[in-house]
Write a structure and sequence with these properties.
The structure holds two protein chains of two kinds. By secondary structure, chain A is an all-beta fold. In chain A, 0% of the residues lie in helices and 59% in strands. Chain A is built from no helices and eleven strands. In chain A, strands 2, 4, 5, 9, 10 and 11 form a six-stranded mixed beta sheet that branches. Chain B contains no helices and eleven strands. In chain B, 0% of the residues lie in helices and 58% in strands. In chain B, the strands form two sheets. In chain B, strands 2, 4, 5, 6, 9, 10 and 11 form a seven-stranded mixed beta sheet that branches. In chain B, strands 1-3-8-7 form a four-stranded antiparallel beta sheet, with no helix packed on it. Classes of the chains: A mainly beta, B mainly beta.
Chain lengths: 110, 113
């Protein structure tokens, strides 16, 4: 069955560093991947979508890559700030609805 | 622009009591609507989705049901709550013709005691 895996449950980094989160998919080839941000007690908020024919996409301090050979997407936050602390979810097409990973909780310390 | 509302925000209910959670979307027509449950460490679990009024598909057989009485209204119900129904319930929509990005509501925190 189609699977989305975010291997790291938690990631702790210092302010100003680049955070890199990983999303791996197995048993299918999605046409796109998406990244969402979720704050505690809130619903997920869409950040970026990258298609299979796009290697990289950027939005302000965010960068997403899509490697169809490695079956992987990387999500980078450059010059990280404590306000970037949240859970980040990877998602891909799943027929009737998106398939979500379990998320990686990022903590940025000052 | 579109907005999505859920209520109540928080709910504490005894085991065996009924449940009704409501979700409404404004600013769009004929969206796809979804109910998810999020439990700690388990990610987002799709419960129901709807592509139109009266059309409900269930992804996971369980103690819950859903209804879509109006185009932009989606209701999650239960006749008798179980302890295992506790969790964070999220409603989401997809814009018609844009079958990619989902937009989520603020969620309802349900605690069954």
């Amino acid at each position: 069955s189609q699977k989305i895996e975010q291997n790291s449950e938690a990631l702790n980094i210092q302010e100003g560093k680049t955070a890199t989160l990983t999303c791996n998919y197995t048993n299918y080839s999605p046409a796109y991947l998406q990244w969402y941000r979720q704050d505690p007690g809130r619903g997920p908020v869409f950040l970026l979508l990258i298609r299979e024919n796009e290697k990289e996409k950027r939005k302000e301090r965010l960068k997403v890559t899509f490697d169809t050979t490695l079956k992987q997407s990387l999500f980078h936050i450059t010059a990280s700030q404590p306000a970037d602390s949240a859970t980040y979810l990877c998602a891909s097409e799943g027929g009737t609805a998106l398939i979500f990973g379990k998320g990686t909780t990022l903590s940025v310390s000052s | 622009s579109q907005t999505i509302h859920q209520w109540p925000a928080t709910l504490v209910q005894p085991v065996g009591s009924p449940l009704s959670l409501e979700c409404t979307v404004e600013g769009t027509s004929n969206p796809n609507l979804y109910w998810y449950r999020q439990a700690a460490g388990r990610g987002l679990q799709l419960l129901f989705y709807s592509v139109g009024i009266g059309q409900i598909s269930s992804e996971v057989p369980q103690n819950l049901s859903a209804s879509r009485p109006q185009d932009r209204q989606f209701i999650l119900s239960s006749k008798k709550l179980l302890l295992s129904d506790s969790g964070f319930y999220l409603c989401a929509y997809l814009l018609a013709g844009h079958q990619e990005t989902q937009y989520f509501g603020p969620g309802t925190r349900l605690l069954v005691l």
